[in-house]
Amino acid sequence: MQARTIIFVALVAHELRPCSSLSSVMRISRHIMARSSPSIGSRASRSLSDNIHGVHSSRRGFLTRRGGNRAPPRRTGPVFSASELSSYDVDTDEGAEQSLAQSPVNDDAKSSIYLNGNTIDASTPEGRANLLSELNLHLSTTVASLSEHRTVSSTDVFCNRELRMDNIRAVGFDMDYTLAQYQQPAFDQLAFDGAKEKLATLGYPDEVLDFVYDHTFWVRGLIIDTQRGNFLKIDRHKYVRVAYHGFNAISSGMRKEIYSRTFNKQPSFTEKTFVNMDTLFQFVDAHLFALLIEMKDNGDSEFLDFKTYDEIYRDIRRCVDLCHRDGVIKDEVARDPSKYLVLDDGMMKMLNGFRESGTKCFLLTNSFWEYTQTAMNYLYHGKKVDDETLRRNEWLELFDLVVVGSCKPAYLTDPYLSLFRVDPGDGSLRNTDGLFEIEALGENGAAKFLSMGKTFQGGNWNHLQAMLNIQAGEEILYVGDHLYADVLRSKRQLGWRSCFIMPELPDEMRTFSMQRDLREAIMELRKLRDELSQYGDGLKRYINTGEFEQKGEMQKKLDLIAEDDWKIKTKLAELNREYHSSFNPHWGQMFVAGYQDSRFGYFVKNYACLYTSKATNLGLPLPSRVFRTSGELLPHDAMLYSRTTNFLDDEECL
User: Is residue 84 predicted with pLDDT exceeding 80?
Assistant: First the structure.
């Protein structure tokens, strides 16, 4: 039955539409059938090949194969073809909620190019040379030295907006989770344990002290609904794709009732009761909140019965924030930095490389001086140092300017914040007159101002750009891990170029690479489903004209199409669950929600000029490197870009 279903689907998809993909259907049949039964998959594949090739050759007289030769089509215009991408489809069924975004260009599809009547396999050195010859492009012999297959790694720097590094005059860095990477879950455990103790002093039940932290449950980009005690993953259109109440998944119907069917109002998720999980620091808040939601819902505490979800969250936020200020965290890190901080040999090489190339470097962090001093000394020396070495602060030689206690994002938006000078010896503060003082120093006022000390607390972006003697925001590249405070605000408010740091990126890339075959099968099934729908549209048009003699037969075909569409939809839901659970069993792939970018992926794509797994990756390319985007396609271009798609003018479709 499964084999017959696949064969029928293929026949229906190719009987009428000349643009269908034979190779895609063949791959689907082999992949899907082999997953359930190898013998069935083999029989279905052979039968499918015989049937489709016969039908297609009888109707069109030629075949379009990925990577193979093809005879000219019936039309006289050019055939637009290239690598395969999926069409767009928005499913509202629960099983397909966690799915895939737009498929990237497949390397095996784009290798062959049909140019000037010749088919060129550009994936080989010889084919690349032939392509350059056809284009009359004569390059040096270095091109022949390039590898046949491009290597992609998690140390690469990925580009959303073209950026020329030789136009950047200053590169700035956040510290926490940027220059200073943390050991997980050991670092989070400090805040988690400290917050538990503080909650107990506020009257929370002693059972809170027995809570266990699990950072693997969470991913960045979620939204916390503090009013209802829910955790949400939304797509770029603000549609809630996945939702949990505490640790319990919310059903599709309930989720839509709460967030999609509110009378006369579409939630913006910017109200004060919604909190964005844009930084790894917030995993502690989320886990404590989910545990207390569970305790409250179970009726395990009379104290919690008189607390709203929102009040519980605000108590948690207050306690966690206090842990960052009262020594619970920084004192432990200072006592044993090797247990909590990750050493990176590339940090000094990167910073020295920038400065040697004439690019200024600055540190801009919300951490205060005492903690910044501890962390940066450890990263600079590679070990815990004595008090005398600590006070020398030799790491300052890596930077032209250091700003601690910056209070981002206000630093990037409020022009009235005052600037204080920090004494590195004892951490004491002195007032400055900021911009007025720089102007009063006359010619080279910024240099004279910094000669009196280059370590500051607070201030705002006007002070920073004046001290760096930079007028245009686009000449500054800021590197940080906080999507809102570091990337979005600096880009949108000031026009700074931005680089987003994602420690999770290696795991995401590793899983994506391992699941490529499954992803391709899913995308091919979606494409096949779309082709079935288009074929059904054609049948309906024939029936509606009243000129078709075999209306009954056509209606049967429509019924079969509907039946097979349901079968494909069910299989897609099954495969999607398998695919997404490989990333995270609860939230799926971080950058994707439904068949669209997740909110997190959308903001990364639109506001991060560059992104990479760690800051020191920026030291690997040449200082004059030009980062280029991979290109973007709208749905109509993406479909035309497919190697198995033929373009038909309007009159040919009639």
Answer: no
